[in-house]
Amino acid sequence: MRVDVFFTAREAAPGDVAGRVVAVIDVLRASSCIAAALANGARAIFPGETTEAVLTRARAFDRGEVRLAGERRMRKIEGFDLGNSPLEFTRDAVEGRTVLMTTTNGTAAFGATQGAREVYVAAYVNFSPVAEVLRRALRAGADVAIVCAGQDGQFALEDAACAGRLVQHVTRRLAPVAMNDGALAAAQLHRKFGGDVWELFETSRHGQALAEAGFAADLVACATMDAYPVVPAYADRQITRLGPPVEA
Amino acid sequence: MRVDVFFTAREAAPGDVAGRVVAVIDVLRASSCIAAALANGARAIFPGETTEAVLTRARAFDRGEVRLAGERRMRKIEGFDLGNSPLEFTRDAVEGRTVLMTTTNGTAAFGATQGAREVYVAAYVNFSPVAEVLRRALRAGADVAIVCAGQDGQFALEDAACAGRLVQHVTRRLAPVAMNDGALAAAQLHRKFGGDVWELFETSRHGQALAEAGFAADLVACATMDAYPVVPAYADRQITRLGPPVEA
After folding, report:
1. Is B120 on the interface with A (CB under 8 A)?
2. Shared domain check, B223 and B141
3. Closest Cα in chain A to B160
4. Residue of B nearest to A157 (CA)
5. Any CB–CB contact under 8 A between B192 and chain A?
6. pLDDT confidence of B244, banded at 50, 70, 90?
């Protein structure tokens, strides 16, 4: 029974995720978009590492069945339907459809989860239900690994703080749970920076960059705790909603 | 004028160190050994990534001129003169000699410093003189990058806290200095965990592993602030002492 946190996908070695229950975090903004899409009735999301991977997969669908989504340097990819803003993943846009998605940091993180027993996608917008799933797994004896997407392969404060909040919730009132240094540090960073998520985004470099690029509304959306209370589960290269279908 | 912290060598992209003044940190124990060796009169230290690299370089010297040093899984490499314990790098052992050294995490970190303007080696045992050199560089307009060796490519709390202490000292009473998320986080981790270095080592996974393996005395040595107050400078693949030679 242990909880480890990895601040970048490259930190997580195969042995760190094999057989474990894993949460992938890319608060700004891929994880938040995935939760928004599933909460608004998307059938599934396929994360792809490249634009080409998304376009190739799109050929397997009728055009009306899918939405192409993704960003490069924060902006929507040319010719795609949606960017990487959770506010774009409305019911009108995604209900009943499959979302094919590529983002700079978020989708690459799934590559680090090979061999995991279960993989979930976490953000502030779906914090509580994912925390509950992880907590139950831990109490049932599973080891948990939390993999932050980070920013261009580097530590990102908002992902670290969200990971620390998960560590805190998942281990609360349990017998001492073994943790790696990353989990200890993340919990502390949550206590210092994570109390007010909006302030956290104003502090983090990626939050600042998004605000400067005109995405302040996205920051508000991504800071809204449990706005999209779904548990996105990743398996067989697709993400679907755990549990009963969304009510219309 | 900025200070960035990278928690693993792989986090630091070439553009993050190019033209900068860089500090490499591997508190447990390579940085501490390097400071001990130079304080005790070693001529130079050659960090090598592998045992083979050390043995190959040794051929360029008379056997009496060099000391072979290094560890794998915390233990001295078979046939080498010294392990990775700062207490082994005594004046008797190293004075006037060149140390050829390989360690699991420490020496690899130098590979991430290509293109840097200057590279120094920092630990708690030589904290103040290195902090002063970095602070002067920053005040003179340089950008500073602090690269933590980490543990097997992963975040290590003791390196992060030492980096945070550097950030705090280097930026004190200066006009706001730009920082990446790593530097913000490191400074906070220093404030939380770094006040008592011995306690920090008891908390960190690598510190615990060393204590369990019988290296508690090394932890005491590595926790002793400014015990070896030298500035190790890395250039042309060797580390020498900045400033006047050690007095006998």
Report:
1. no
2. yes
3. A185
4. B181
5. yes
6. low
The answer to whether residues A40 and A132 belong to one domain is: no
Are B66 and B128 part of one and the same domain? no
- The per-residue pLDDT for range A204-234, each reduced to its tens digit, is 999 999 999 999 999 999 999 999 999 999 9
Asked if the peptide bond before residue A29 counts as cis, ω within 30 degrees of 0, the response is: yes
ipTM value of the model?
A: 0.94
Q: pLDDT > 90: what percent of chain A?
A: 91
Q: Does A8 touch chain B (CB under 8 A)?
A: yes
| Predicted confidence band of residue B8 (pLDDT cuts 50, 70, 90) | very high
Q: Are residues A62 and A163 in the same domain?
A: no
pTM over 0.90: yes
Inside any domain, residue B141: yes
Task: Tell me: pLDDT of A100 over 80.
Answer: yes
* Interchain contact B109–A (C-beta under 8 A): no
Q: Which of B6, B192, B193 sits opposite A154 (nearest CB)?
A: B6
Same domain, B7 and B99: no
The range of the structural domain enclosing residue A68 comes to 33-104
In a domain, A244, yes or no: no
**Which chain B residues touch A153 with a CB distance below 8 Å?**
10-11, 13
- CATH number of the domain at A184, please: 3.90.1560.10
Last residue of a domain, one of B87, B103, B119: B103
Judged by CB atoms closer than 8 Å, whether chains meet at B11 and A182 is answered as no
Domain-ending residue, one of B66, B88, B103: B103
Residue B190's closest chain A neighbor by CA?
Answer: A185
A181/B155 touch (CB, cutoff 8 Å), yes or no: yes
The answer as to whether B144 is a domain residue is yes
pLDDT at residue B34, as a whole number? 97
Number of structural domains in chain A: 2
Asked if B216 and B118 sit in the same domain, the reply is yes
Q: Interhelix angle for B30-39 vs B216-223, to 10°?
A: 70
